[in-house]
Amino acid sequence: MNNQSKKKKSAYTVGARQKAFPWVVPFASVRLTLTLLSLSMILIFVATLEQVRIGIRGAQAEYFESFYGIWYYPEQFWGGSFLSVVPLPIPGGYLLGGLLIINLIAAFVTRFQWSGKKIGIQIIHLGIILLLIGQMTTQAIQVESRMQINKGESSDYIERFHGVELALTDVTDANRSKVVSIPEELLKPGSTLRVPGFPFKVRVKAFGPNCSFDFKESAAQRSKITMDVNRGIGASANLSLSPRDEDYSNDAANFGYLVFQLVNGSEELGTWLAVAHPAGNDRWKFVHTKLEGMAFQPLRHEGRLWGVELRSIREYLPYSIELLKIENEFYQGTDIPHNFESHVNLNLESGQKRKALVYMNTPLRHGGKTFYQYQMNKAADYTVFQVIRNPSWLVPYIACILLSVGLLWQFSFHLINFLRKQSKVSA
Amino acid sequence: MKFLKRYPLIPSAFFAVGLYLAILPFGTTKASLLDFVKPEPAPNAEIIDLEAFSRIPVLRGGRVKPLDSVARNTLLVLRNKRTALDQNGTKIPAISWLANVLLNPEEADRLKTFVIDHDQVLGLLNRKLVRDGKYYSYNELKPFLEEIDKSARDSGKLEREKQDSFDQNIIDLYRSVLLYRKLKHTLSPPAPPPGTKMTEDLDLVTFFFDSARDKDRTDEYSRFRSITDAISQDPSTIRIGSDAFAKVVFLLDHYSRSNLWSEFFPVPPELGDQKKRWRKVGESLVGEEPLDSEQKRNLDPTQFASLLQDLVRTERGPLLERVNFILTKEKLNPTALFAAQYAEAIKLRTGIDPILSLYEKLRQAYVANDPTGFNEAVSLIRELCEKRAPDQVTKIGFEKTFNEYEPFYRSSVAYIIIFLSSCLSWFCLTINTPKFNAQHSKSFKNVAYHLTLIILIAHTFGLLGRMYIEGRPPVTNLYSSALFIGWGAVLLCWFTEKYVRLGIASSMGAMVGFGSLVIAHNLSLDSSLNPTGDTMEMMRAVLDSNFWLATHVVTVTIGYSTTFLAGFLGLAYIFYYFIHQVLVSDNSDNKLSTLLSSSRKQLEKTLGSMIFGITCFSLFFSLVGTVLGGIWADQSWGRFWGWDAKENGALLIVIWNAIILHARWAGIAKIRGIACLAIFGNVVTAWSWFGTNMLGVGLHSYGFMDKAFNPLMSFIVSQMVFICVAYMVTPICLLFRKKQPFLK
Fold first, then answer.
1. What is the dihedral of CA A305, A309, A313, A316, to 10 degrees?
2. Do A332 and B265 touch (CB under 8 A)?
3. Which of B312, B328, B348 is the last residue of a domain?
4. Does A183 touch chain B (CB under 8 A)?
5. Mutate to test the interface with B, among A30, A45, A48, A385 (most CBs of B within 10 A)
């Protein structure tokens, strides 16, 4: 009996496991761990420095959400005039994260002792695997949007921070409008799109994530891409656009633009232009009165009326949020904000009404989405929520518990041993 | 007796000095620990009692604090010290300086209040650092005010990155002058320059306070009230073109603008004020401006006059309701908003707040050197504040004593004694003469150990005192993180020393403690981090969560603290290793080298396990703290991890600690390697603590600062030098040893 149980146990020893999976052994090496960790330090350090140049989102896209990034030593640093020419490849977040996961799993298989004494180590590393996987999935599936509500009004849609869509709204029936939207992935210059329920085809002539614009005297003075625009605001205001790179910085304002032609069979109806305001197209009136109509460029055909606009990608919710009141307080005699809060009503589909208070560190969670107090304008009486959908939000919490338990277990083990030894020595 | 037998004279003396430093008053630190439990000293009727004066509560920087704190904090900004100097260079306590500034400005203008230590800025004033020193009075700056103003404006136009040290210094000086002038005018709104056309046209030449005619400023305030009362009784005079109306508009504008020239809020909340707002002198007379004064340009004058007339005609009760309605519902209408303020000033604010007359009495008594009048006014002001803001003045006395106890200053001095004591213990062990032997060495070590505990009490009391005053967890800004890092390291050292009595943990703890307190002091001087000079400023709404401050921030800061400690123990090892290698390579047969060689194995083992153990702590705290930070971010912004600069810094510390531990477990690094890795941990932590704040990006950039760039770089270079020394000392010594026979 005794012998048997020993035999059984022996199958789980490190040696036996290494024999069973010899090809896993090299992946489990500590040296590999150390190399990966050192490379991660370089990655994080470089990506942090790069935030100054390209902003957090830029650094995230270039380094953390990629397999490798190319870094040039900053010119303004010491010796920068020579060193800044050399392109340096930096291993990216997906590469290092993926390899670390492999390394950790391999270590579970062939290196860790499966014993109660070492259970702390296993729990810690399990927590780390979870953290890595959690972060990678979050980066892949988390969606960030915003919701703006004016006081006394309610809103039932959220808008993405990044990305635009072409929306064609049929408002012929004043009570029921029908919207068809074309996501930006389809808006490739040169392509012609057929839209269900819309009598025309849309031919994309120019599209970009950001632009600058100004008014000209005549069509001839406009930039090349806007030269042909002969309908809508683009024509009436003589608007000239020049494309710009997308701005990745934190306070970026990207004005996406689209120049398109409508085609009815072989007949060309004209060329339109649409620009999306990053804070919502109802902001255009504050930019210039001539641009107010950017939110709704009318299009009439055979007794029907459509409104055309390029806007931030919208998602409609089955419920709506009504803003009752906002409060924005500062500490007296300082410009340090003390409190921002929005009093809202959550109007559910079922007709149920719930009062809620959204303020710093206390978001509103509903239907898998979380609404955070983001911006507020006391004078104009509106509030902006940041809206997040992140189905994997629970993973870091579990990982955190695992890590704490494992670390506590392991280190108290060490500490008690150390103290015991010391008291023996001093005795 | 037993104590004296066990402890020889010199170590005992060290102990006594340390104990004294921790508890009793010395130098400019006037309070002892006992003063916290003693009641406030009875006022001395014979002299002008500034002690009681210093306890008058006022609101500055969003917090109610004693005048004593206002005095110390502003002097810290103006002169980088908590005292001023008179013409002869004698130190003047902060509170008597402030009494002069507030009550007797002519005298204050003669005191040396400003620090200017930049050659070029001094050049602008025709001064030389070596000849004229670096402290100047307002009178000395007066002839150059225009030039300072112009240069500062030019410098201010540059982008921050392009400003050089002159630009920053001149801007600092400009701000200092502004702060001083605001302080001077806080209790005495400046009158418009005499002889202007406006005052003559409106027949206001004799309106403003004139010391020859008037008893005090309350006479001016009464004249103002009689003008508003007249218009309130006859609202029909409120129309464009009426003299009475023009007068009121001019004066209201004048008092509203005087609020900009006020540094703090001396008037406690009026009884019945729901929001418990403190007021400036001008606000007490005419109320708060609803919008920036600039917006007055957008008024519609006719509409304004008719609305104001209509409001003033309303009875007081309904008027209050209408004013509140306008303030909440017509926020985009400047005409209505200003009409509401003017109506409030004319009809709702009647009489003069008694606190204003009391401050005037205080001023007269101070200038006339009349102790009875002064002390009476002080006690009346304090009584009134207590009556009107009973729950806001409870901590005033504590804060005053806390200021005088200066726990961090005294701790930093005492840490030097601990360090010296540990060094002496090794010195005794080395020379081993009858007078200084192993017995002495042991006593010095014990003194260092016991002193650490005693100083920790003072340091801890300092942290607790701040927590009590602020009502916050210990770490709220960069300054307090420095205090806490030092405290954490010293505490851990004390525990380590308890078990491993080598004097190493004591000395390194004292070094980290002293260093972090010096850093904290320098942070408190940084005008960009600390514009009001108050290290207990209010928290931004985003950070305003005591739960997360107490968990995430404290844990991460302990992580910093322990990582630094491991690094300093690494430094201690490399120091020992260096001496050992040099002596051993010398082949000399002296006492020290035998001693070092004989103890080498044991010491390496002990130090190795100390570094290892503390790194375990570091990993635990930095990892848990970083993850908690992620959870806070998830709760507040909806993302667990945003690759923010400060977050990345914390992650670097976690990874680095993991690298150290894995390198040791895998046997890749031995004691020297571990020590060097731990030293590099100092670099990583310093980057995370300060470097990330210099980038000026991300959510945590609330502590943005760039003055620390050079110190940070020097620290990093010094750590790299130590690492190089660790690896170069043996080859270099070998090189020299080979040469020796040749030389002989």
1. -30
2. yes
3. B348
4. no
5. A48
> From the CA of B543, how many Å to the nearest CA of chain A?
8
Quick count: other Cβ atoms within 10 Å of Cβ B477?
19
In the listed set B348, B366, B393, which residue is the last one of a domain according to the structure? Answer: B348
Shared domain check, B726 and B589: yes
- Domains identified in chain B, total number: 4
How far is it, in rounded angstroms, from Cα B448 to Cα B423? Answer: 10
Same domain, B97 and B16: no
Q: Quick one: DSSP state of residue B261?
A: G
Domain enclosing residue B554, as ranges: 539-744
Give the Cα-Cα-Cα angle B402, B406, B411 (nearest 5 degrees).
Answer: 130
Candidates B62, B620, B651; nearest CB to A411: B620
Place of tokens 């402030």: B98
Calpha distance B674→B676 (Å, rounded): 5
Q: What is the pLDDT of residue B701?
A: 45
Q: Does the residue B534 lie in any domain?
A: no
Judging by beta carbons within 10 Å of its beta carbon (0-12, 13-18, 19+), is residue A39 exposed, middle or buried? middle
Inspect the interface and report whether the beta carbons of B638 and A55 lie closer than 8 Å: no
> Are residue B336 and residue B208 in the same domain, yes or no?
yes
For B186-251, the DSSP string reads SSSPPPPPTT-HHHHHTT-TTTS--TTT-SSHHHHHHHHHHHHHHHHH-GGG-STT-HHHHHHHHH
- In the three-class reduction of DSSP (H, G, I as helix; E, B as strand; rest coil), residue B319 is classed as helix
User: Does B322 lie in the same domain as B430?
Assistant: no
For chain A, the C-alpha Rg in angstroms (whole number) is 29
Tell me, yes or no, if A83 comes closer than 8 A to chain B by beta carbon. Answer: no
What confidence tens digit (pLDDT) does each residue in B522-561 have? Answer: 989 887 777 888 888 888 777 777 788 888 999 999 999 9
**Domain-located, residue B620:** yes
Domain check: are B743 and B677 in the same one? yes
**B519 and B565 both lie in a single domain:** no
Question: Is B431 in a helix, a strand, or coil?
Answer: helix
| Predicted complex: ipTM over 0.90 | no
Name the pTM for this structure.
0.88
E strand or H helix at B426, and its extent?
Answer: helix B407-431
Structural tokens at position A55: 């902003």
The tens digit of pLDDT for each residue in B476-531 reads: 888 999 999 999 999 999 999 998 888 899 999 999 999 999 999 998 988 777 78
Q: How many CA atoms lie within 13 A of B571 on its CB side?
A: 23
* Position B169 in a domain: yes
Q: What is the pLDDT of residue B78?
A: 94
- Over residues B120-148, mean pLDDT: 92
Model pLDDT for residues A253-277, shown as the tens digit of each residue: 889 999 998 888 778 888 989 999 8
User: What sign results for the dihedral spanned by CA atoms B1, B6, B11, B15?
Assistant: negative
Q: Decide if B655 and A44 are in contact by the 8 Å CB cutoff.
A: yes
Would residue B382 count as lying in a domain?
Answer: no
Q: Are residues B184 and B202 in the same domain?
A: no
Inter-chain touch A404–B265, beta carbons under 8 Å: no
Q: Which of A54-58, B87-91, B487-491 has the highest mean pLDDT?
A: B487-491
Q: Are residues B547 and B592 in the same domain?
A: yes
Is B544 in Cβ contact with A361 (below 8 Å)?
A: yes
Q: For residue B112, what is the enclosing H or E element?
A: strand B112-115
Which whole-number Å values give the CA distances from A93 to A141, A142, B650, in the listed order?
16, 17, 17
